[in-house]
Write a structure and sequence with these properties.
Shape: globular
Number of domains: 2
Order of helices and strands: HHHHHHHHHHHHEHHHEHH
Helix content: 55-70%
Number of strands: 2
Number of helices: 17
Distance between the termini: 33 Å
Strand order of the largest sheet: 1-2
Strand content: under 5%
Radius of gyration: 21 Å
Structural class: mainly alpha
Largest sheet: 2 strands, parallel
Length: about 375
Amino acid sequence: MTSTLTPPSSATVPGAATDARAGSSFTALTRRVHDLDLMRRRYGYYWTKLVGAVLILAAWVVAFIWIGDSWWQLLSAGVLAIIMTQLGFLGHDAAHRQIFKSGRWNDWTSMIIANLFVGISYGWWRTKHNRHHANPNKVGSDPDIDLGAIAMTPEQATRQRGRLMQWLISHQGWYFFPILLLEGLSLHTEGFRRGLSRGPVERRWVELSLLTARLGGLVALVFLVLPPGKAVAFLAVELAVFGFYLGSSFAPNHIGMPLVSPRLKLDFLRRQVLMSRNVSGGRFMSILMGGLNYQIEHHLFPSMARPSLRKVQPLVAAYCAAEGVPYTQTTLWQSYRVIIRYLNSVGLRGKDPFVCPLVAQRRAL
């Protein structure tokens, strides 16, 4: 069931005084969060996750070698993809400074997880993700709504394209999830593209070395254990499941939520809450989505440890209700239906049905 708290008409277009009051009350909320010790590090939780992930990965390698030449290895490929996705969630937490107090420890932890274990460039992802957090769903600023294969805005849908591509765009909601099967391959290649690009690249050789060790090591292991045909099938399944799982976990966060005009300025609270969507489902959903189901709380408190997001959620929901700010929460399947409807609507160059009145009126300004 979709839960959206609608603001009263008097709060629809906040003025300067209202923005100032919102900022002041958000400071009070932040103070409350600190008083409840919800920003503390959860070392036991994360060390258990980190050590457990390494042990599970080592167990997978042993099982893979033991199973040997068998088509059952395609199931093993799916298991590896799930492990890689869960490791990716840990790398995401470290990149947001959720694990350690030391920024250096978080950086290196995230880079080792991303580059050496998962095969994704930490530097590329961090730059892209920081831009997203600063301006979620803001046209021209958020790289997550500037995708080549998918038109995320009506303006993108109206670009000159061939007849076949235009037909595909008009039905893009239906092929959005199938195209996620290629996301794993895209994520791996982006890291090398960044590392081999011209101009200054931070930790270029460290990242390239880790990526080469990870991707080259997996390919070598697979071809040593399996004959060429099965090896190629194994790698294809692993890439497809990895991309689909990771993409399906990130997609509900913002797709189908209001877009922000480049000219529109919003206070921090509205900039983060109005453009984000939570996914209900409790602890199971937190494990499945790596804590991304508490997207609103994560955007408001990006360095908060994953286990604390569940605890702060009622405080944030109550605060948004008091401030008259819509707070959106749906089930996972409802979010997927919204994504399909929204993308098809954009592809047909229809009117965006998901812009809330607050954003629509402020856009007009």
